TrEMBL record:
InterPro entries: Glyco_tran_10_C, Glyco_tran_10_N, Glyco_trans_10, GT10-like_C_sf. Residues 171-343 form the Fucosyltransferase C-terminal domain. Its main location: Golgi. One of its GO terms (cellular component) is Golgi membrane. This is Fucosyltransferase. It is a single-pass type II membrane protein. Pathway: Protein modification; protein glycosylation. The keyword Glycoprotein applies. Belongs to the glycosyltransferase 10 family. Its EC number is 2.4.1.-. Residues 44-153 form the Fucosyltransferase N-terminal domain.
Length: 374
């Protein structure tokens, strides 16, 4: 009996092994097919090789692939194993390391230098990326001269213009100026600028640059949610950039624009933001000699609700587009260039460093006295 049972088990085992082998075989075939069909659906594969947190955390934009582009024959992937079958690869340029060349690049593959940081930060993580400087065909950054312009946001006319009681909004506000920041040693010296400004107007500071140095744990760094509604209690928000670089205007402006608040920018090179943003809907610290002058200007509005309400009303004629729309536009533009490289004269960059305006387009602050300079 016992022996019989043993025999049975052995026979069953053999049967089982056969079934398993068959299943494994089918599984392998299925996966090969899946990979094959993925790369043979006729669309150009665009691989984002090392997407930064800034991109992956913004699922609102991310999940959309190229779906909203009218004629885009492209498919976005983040799967590095598709590198050799990709028509184009997007790299977070300054984060590139030797590992980025672990596959063999087809001759007609286009490399895209993506970057959302200003040139002042390109070498922060080392200069290994420079080894690839002659490998790129396209640039995709916030700078308007990039092949593919990918700004942090966009301000467009509001349709229709909302009818709001701006005077009562102004009257309800019980705070003056707010600054939220976590990076407190910057090449724009914004931390020193704010310190000076506080001599002339009340500035509440949240985040690690506050007096208590408590991190701002409310909401998401990129996508501002309900907890930023504290902004509605304030009259002005300081959207001060960490570097004064041409066209470098970030989510600090675009994500906060739609609150009932007036944004004060400090960034770009002198009057540079006037080329990007509509006139009269924000205040530009770069228009003032120093923090004292800006403080004086803000005071006029802090002491006059009617005057401040006018500013809000003027601002309401414009809206900040949701990020996913801005992102989509850039992706569609990219796909166009990948589909028709001849039309767009896609070539190879010989001197990427100059193209990225690494040296020329950032300025030292000139609105602080020498004694503040480190
Ligand atoms: C004034 O500020 C406090 C927070 O400091 C807030 O709770 C309150 O709702 C604000 N608004 C009014 C009208 O008091
Ligand atoms: C892109 O750059 C590579 C590497 O420099 C080059 O070999 C290739 O011809 C370029 N592609 C186009 C379309 O110009």
């Amino acid at each position: 009996m016992k022996r019989l049972l043993q025999c049975r088990t052995r026979a069953d085992m053999r049967q089982l092994v056969k079934v398993c082998m068959a299943l494994l075989f089918l599984f392998i075939i299925f996966n090969i097919y899946k990979r094959w069909s993925k790369s043979h659906d006729g669309r150009h594969i665009v691989l984002w090789y090392n997407p930064p947190f800034y991109v992956t955390s913004r699922t609102d934009a991310f999940v959309r692939n190229f779906d909203e582009c009218p004629q885009a024959n492209c498919r976005l992937t983040f799967d590095q194993s598709e590198a050799e079958s990709s028509k184009a690869i997007i790299f977070d340029g300054r984060q590139m390391t030797k590992d980025c060349k672990s596959f063999s690049r087809p001759q007609d593959q286009m490399w895209v230098f993506w970057g959302n940081e200003p040139p002042t930060k390109y070498n922060e993580a080392g200069d290994e990326w420079m080894d690839f400087a002659k490998e790129f065909n396209l640039t995709m950054t916030y700078h308007r001269e990039s092949d593919v312009y990918m700004p942090y946001g966009e301000i467009v006319p509001t349709m229709p213009i909302p009818q709001k009681d701006f005077l009562s909004i102004a009257q309800k506000k019980n705070h003056s100026v707010v600054w939220i920041a976590s990076s407190c040693h910057t090449s724009s010296w914004r931390e020193m600028y704010v310190k000076e400004l506080r001599k002339y107007v009340d500035v509440d500071i949240f985040g690690r640059c506050s007096d208590a140095m408590t991190p701002w744990n409310c909401g998401n760094r990129w996508k501002h949610d309900d907890c930023f509604s504290v902004l509605n209690d304030y009259k002005f928000y300081l959207a001060f950039e960490n570097s004064l670089c041409e066209d470098y205007i970030t989510e600090k402006f675009f994500e906060n624009y739609n609150y009932d608040i007036i944004i004060v920018t400090r960034g770009g090179t002198k009057s540079n933001f006037k080329d990007i943003l509509p006139d009269g809907v924000y205040i530009d610290a770069m228009d003032f000699q120093n923090p004292k002058e800006l403080g004086g200007h803000l005071k006029q509005f802090l002491n006059d609700d009617k005057k401040y309400a006018n500013l809000l009303e003027r601002k309401s004629a414009y809206t900040s587009l949701p990020y996913h729309i801005v992102y989509q536009k850039s992706l569609c533009n990219l796909c166009d260039r990948i589909m028709y490289p001849e039309v767009y004269n896609v070539a190879r960059y010989d001197n990427l460093r100059d193209t990225l305006h690494e040296i020329n387009f950032c300025k030292h602050p000139s609105d602080l006295e020498r004694k503040h300079q480190r």
